[in-house]
Design a protein that fits this description.
This protein is an alpha+beta fold and about 325 residues long. The protein has 13 helices and 7 strands.
């Protein structure tokens, strides 16, 4: 499964080179810079019957990275000094799992997680269910899908779509084929159709992490940013080592003026991509420039041009770089960074 190719297709076509310029930047030098903007999150984990779930592992992932805790005798847990923003919270007992997305915007917050009525496989087992779903796909449909993927790689979109249609005639609930169809729709500017296809893919295989990320990208194009955030966080659960959902999540957060969180997600994407997708540097440069962090924005532009001087977006990056350098030249007179 050529995962990288699929996501490079839709990321190139949904990449928003410039974001809203009204965002403001605060440089973080330590927790004390955010007095009144740090939260304490208290919570509890309950069994299905409402009794406390003791000794359960709780993990929180978001703006400040990943932290872990274990519930006490009453199912209680607490995370301190969390910067305001959106977090993915998960409780896992090994046989049961509960998940919640929380947004912190006050000094204290409370959350309750409840396990379902029956044993639910842990995340690792959920990933195994992808293979179980794929095993149901007839060989004829699988071969047509592989041909569709090859044609898409060559840039033969129409041939790829024809092969996908054949694959879906053989097996209408082929999640990977529906996901690739969604990618091609998004690449052609049909965001609504792409979202519909991705939702169908998720309906066929709820553990297909790639489908969640494509859906998140389509929602970003349609400016449905809050729903995109929820969808992308779900995709991250199934694809924790993929950079694409963090990139799209960064774009969602930028659009909502949650700049510090957006930069954190873009940095996560950069770390996971290992410089394999130069537009990440362009996106970071654009965000940093809007936040008046011109030195770091310049560094991102230079990194883009060093790794991909012939990239189709290189001319735009050079234009941004010239704007940044003009700003830096006037910095002593204006007091800008």
């Amino acid at each position: 499964m050529k995962f990288c190719f699929i996501f490079c297709c839709f990321i190139f076509c949904t990449f928003l080179f410039a974001q809203d310029g009204r965002m403001q930047w605060e440089r973080r030098t330590g927790p004390e810079r955010f007095t009144g903007r740090l939260s304490t999150l208290r919570g509890e984990v309950l069994n299905h019957n409402g009794t406390p779930a003791a000794g359960v592992s709780v993990k929180i992932n978001g703006v400040s990275g990943t932290q872990g805790s274990t519930t006490g005798a009453q199912g209680e847990f607490q995370f301190n000094d969390l910067p305001w923003g959106t977090y993915d919270l998960e409780a896992d007992s090994g046989t049961l799992s509960a998940h919640e997305t929380v947004t912190l915007s006050s000094e204290t917050a409370q959350v309750s997680l409840r396990f379902g009525p029956t044993a639910r496989p842990a995340q690792a087992a959920e990933r195994n269910s992808i293979s179980a779903q794929q095993l149901k796909v007839p060989e004829k449909a699988r071969k047509q899908y592989e041909k569709a993927l090859e044609e898409a790689q060559k840039g033969n979109k129409e041939k790829s779509l024809n092969k996908l249609a054949e694959a879906l005639r053989s097996y209408p609930c082929y999640s990977d084929a529906l996901t690739l169809n969604s990618v091609l729709d998004l690449q052609s500017g049909r965001a609504k159709a792409a979202a519909d296809e991705a939702q169908r893919a998720i309906g066929c295989d709820g553990s297909n992490g790639k489908a969640y990320v494509v859906l998140g990208a389509a929602l970003n194009v349609q400016q449905e940013y809050e729903e995109a955030i929820r969808t992308l966080n779900e995709g991250i659960r199934f694809q924790p080592d993929a950079w694409q959902p963090h990139y799209e999540l960064g774009k969602s957060l930028l659009a909502l003026h949650r700049t510090r969180e957006a930069v954190a997600e873009l940095k996560r994407a950069e770390g996971l991509a290992h410089n394999s997708f130069p537009p990440l540097h362009a996106a970071m440069a654009t965000a940093l420039m809007q936040m008046n962090d011109y030195q770091d924005a310049r560094a991102q532009c230079l990194l883009f041009l060093k790794t991909a001087p012939e990239h189709p977006e290189a001319a735009k990056v050079r234009k941004i770089l010239s704007q940044i350098e003009a700003k830096l030249q006037t910095a002593p007179a204006t007091g800008e960074k």
